[in-house]
Amino acid sequence: MFVVGVAGVLTRRNAIIVFMSIELMLNSANLSLVTFSSFSGNPVGQLFVFFVMAVAAAEAAVGLAIIIALFRNKPTLNIDEINILKW
Amino acid sequence: MTLELILFIIFALICAVTSVLMITRSNPIISALFLILNFAALAGIYLLLHAQFIAVAQVIVYAGAIMVLFLFVIMLLRPEKEKLLAIAPRLKISAFVLAFIVLVQLVYMIFVSGSSGSVKANAEMSIKAGTIETIGTELFSKYILPVEAVGFLLLAAAIGALVLAKKKFE
User: Fold this and answer.
1) Among all residues of chain A, which has the CA nearest to that of B143?
2) Which terminus, N or C, of chain B has the lesser number of Cβ atoms within 10 Å?
3) What residue ranges do the domains of chain B occupy?
4) Using CB atoms, which residue from A12, A34, A57 is nearest to B154?
């Protein structure tokens, strides 16, 4: 799943799908955290997954707001055409 | 084969297939729906791992809140269909090479390096670790500072999203 997420980020040009691939990578990391936490009977891994979820929610909200602002500025979602941060 | 193993195989297959389908669809709405299915199957795997709290949080936070946000933005912006893999061939090759390197690295870590052997599986402890009681006690005793920090972060993110989406980008 992590590999699929990496491939998604690198090959797709739609900003929203790149974003969803990032969520996919976060989730695969979460899965391994939960697996080891339940394997060793240690709840700290699950706590960490909880924090990761909170950070992912915040990141999704801010990222989508940035996408909306960009879209208003320039009606495209293609990340090759969004180059206003370039020097 | 026990029921648990069968369920695990089903959920894992759903996860793997939907994640591949997600990055190969050209319509963003369909790929968002596949991602929701992926998250739901992941919640099933968490339940099989005795992590009830995380499973419920996964359904509520990811499949509920985050993906609704995504779908809402997709429908708001109504993006045009993109051509799949319509990027420079040099970039495409390097992307696949990089993804393949990560895959090789993961496979190496899983199969070649072997387990450390110091960590033993402990079914009783693992059932206890997943309950909301244990997690809540840990969260509000030992990890109270990170909890407060996360609350502050969420507040900042909400305000930041409002400001970013409201203001005209000059």
Assistant:
1) A47
2) C
3) 1-84, 90-115, 127-170
4) A57
pLDDT tens for residues B56-99?
888 888 888 888 888 888 888 776 665 555 556 677 777 778 77
**A63 within some domain:** yes
What residues of chain B lie within 8 A of the CB of A56, using their CB? 61-62, 66
Read off the amino acid at residue A40: S
Q: How far apart are CA B22 and CA B45, in angstroms?
A: 19
Which range, of A31-35, B32-36, B114-118, averages the lowest pLDDT? B114-118
Class of domain B1-84: mainly alpha
Neighboring chain B residues of A46 at a CB cutoff of 8 Å = 51, 53-54, 129-130, 135
- Is A86 part of any domain? no
Instruction: Return d(Cα A76, Cα B78) in angstroms, integer.
Output: 10
Contact residues on chain B for A20, CB-CB shorter than 8 A: 22, 31-32, 35, 70
Residue percentage of chain A with pLDDT more than 70: 66
Helix intervals (H) in A1-87: 2-11, 15-40, 44-73
* Structure tokens given for A31: 């899965």
Q: How confident is the model at residue B170 (pLDDT cuts 50, 70, 90)?
A: very low
CATH number at residue A58: 1.10.287.3510
Number of domains comprising chain A = 1
